[in-house]
């Protein structure tokens, strides 16, 4: 099967790469504000350190490849990767964890394949998955909302001290996955990880990223197909396998939409024009695949949130999706007489 050659979607035009990246960065501000309100300066420390690490790795690798460093740093793609990765990491993450995540994101997720426009995987999600698999304890140490002091948080970042036990809690997805006996109502009443509809605090964070995503849709920086496909598939899957409030329930549709990295993934990850599908029909299929896989991993997999894994798996499928969803050439009819596209 010969895969189609598709022009990079960011080379020229009024939406130059830097302008697009800056608009996406602007759209992350509501989510940054929500995370900062919940966890204090930890999110800001993540953002600052991840940005320095990503830009440093980008500059070093560009210099090693004898590419113009300043020119490529100006497109802000490395900065956006750092921001998305920092928002996905737990607040007050150890400095070395962020360093490793950014190194893999820029080195193995982007520059290894030739730079922006040639990477088959989403760099931020690749860096996130590498540290999630390698350091599961640190990646699941999320602080309880409004609990971390600045001094204690800095001590944890620098590796001087660990966070007190009472300040670290399981997320709502973690609590739901390991639950074997309590009903959903009992979990909401006894576990501080649960909020009104989703996880404690993550409801506000998801609504904030939803607001940022709607802003990007309004600016027409991407089409609606991938985010709607993901959210609709996640909603349908959670509705089909929702067992009410029983102890074996996997959570309601609203719970899954407002918990974890759902809205961040739907509007800032699956809309990546490089590692996703390119046609509108392909984007819809791509997004739906991410939503289905994210629910399968959440409900029956080994990790509480499956958005990052789902995105990487669908990145692998994107070329095949593009092959079978290519729009017909203008002026040509659809293939007939048993011939398929590409014959």
Descriptive keywords:
2 domains, about 60% helix, mainly alpha, cell inner membrane, about 350 residues, 17 helices, transport, globular
What do these coordinates show?
By secondary structure, the protein is an all-alpha fold. It folds into two domains: 16-169, no CATH class; 172-322, no CATH class. Helices cover 58% and strands 1% of the residues. It has helices at 17-27, 29-39, 42-64, 69-73, 77-88, 95-108, 123-134, 136-139, 150-158, 172-178, 184-190, 202-218, 225-240, 253-257, 262-269, 280-300, 307-324; strands spanning 142-143, 168-169. A two-stranded antiparallel sheet has the order 1-2. It is globular, with a radius of gyration of 21 Å. Residues 10-15 have low confidence and may be disordered.
Number of strands: 2
Are there runs of 5+ residues with pLDDT below 50, and where?
10-15
Q: What is the global morphology?
A: globular
Note the main sheet: 2 strands, antiparallel
Give helix and strand order, one letter per element, not per position: HHHHHHHHEHEHHHHHHHH
- The domain tally reads 2
Structural class: mainly alpha
Rounded mean pLDDT is: 84
Question: Mind telling me the C-alpha Rg?
Answer: 21 Å
Biggest sheet: strand arrangement = 1-2
Question: What percent of residues are in strands?
Answer: under 5%
Q: What is the terminal-to-terminal distance?
A: 9 Å
Q: Give the helix level as a range of percent.
A: 55-70%
Structure annotation, total helices: 17
Cofactor: FMN
Transmembrane segments: 20-40, 46-64, 71-89, 95-113, 125-144, 193-217, 224-242, 254-271, 283-301, 307-325
Keywords: Cell inner membrane, Cell membrane, Electron transport, Flavoprotein, FMN, Membrane, Phosphoprotein, Translocase, Transmembrane, Transmembrane helix, Transport
Function: Part of a membrane-bound complex that couples electron transfer with translocation of ions across the membrane.
């Amino acid at each position: 099967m010969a895969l189609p050659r598709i022009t990079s979607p960011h080379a020229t035009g009024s939406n130059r790469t830097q302008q697009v990246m800056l608009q996406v960065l602007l759209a992350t501000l509501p989510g940054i504000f929500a995370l900062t309100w919940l966890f204090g300066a930890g999110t800001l420390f993540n953002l600052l350190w991840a940005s320095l690490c990503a830009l440093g790795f980008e500059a070093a690798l560009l210099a090693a490849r004898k590419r113009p460093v300043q020119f490529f740093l100006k497109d802000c793609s490395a900065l956006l990767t750092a921001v998305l990765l920092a928002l996905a990491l737990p607040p007050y993450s150890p400095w070395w964890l962020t360093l490793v995540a950014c190194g893999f994101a820029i080195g193995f997720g982007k520059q290894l394949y030739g730079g922006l426009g040639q990477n088959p995987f989403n760099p931020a999600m690749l860096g996130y998955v590498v540290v999630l698999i390698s350091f599961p304890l640190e990646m699941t140490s999320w602080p309880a909302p409004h609990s971390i002091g600045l001094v204690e948080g800095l001590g944890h970042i620098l590796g001087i001290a660990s966070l007190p036990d009472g300040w670290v809690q399981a997320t709502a997805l973690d609590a739901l996955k390991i639950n074997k006996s309590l009903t959903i109502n009992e979990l909401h009443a006894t576990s501080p990880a649960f909020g009104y509809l989703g996880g404690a605090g993550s409801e506000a964070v998801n609504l904030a990223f939803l607001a940022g995503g709607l802003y990007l849709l309004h600016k027409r920086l991407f089409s609606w197909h991938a985010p709607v496909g993901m959210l609709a598939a996640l909603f349908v899957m959670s509705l089909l396998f929702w067992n009410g409030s029983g102890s074996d329930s996997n959570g309601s549709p609203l719970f899954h939409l407002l918990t974890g990295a759902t809205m961040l993934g739907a509007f800032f990850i699956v809309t990546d024009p490089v590692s996703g599908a390119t046609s509108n029909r392909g984007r819809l299929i791509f997004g739906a695949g991410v939503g289905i896989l994210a629910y399968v991993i959440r409900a029956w997999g080994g990790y509480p949130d499956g958005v990052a894994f789902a995105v990487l798996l669908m990145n692998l499928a994107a070329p095949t999706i593009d092959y079978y969803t290519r729009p017909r050439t203008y002026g040509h009819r659809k293939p007939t007489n048993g011939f398929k596209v590409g014959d």
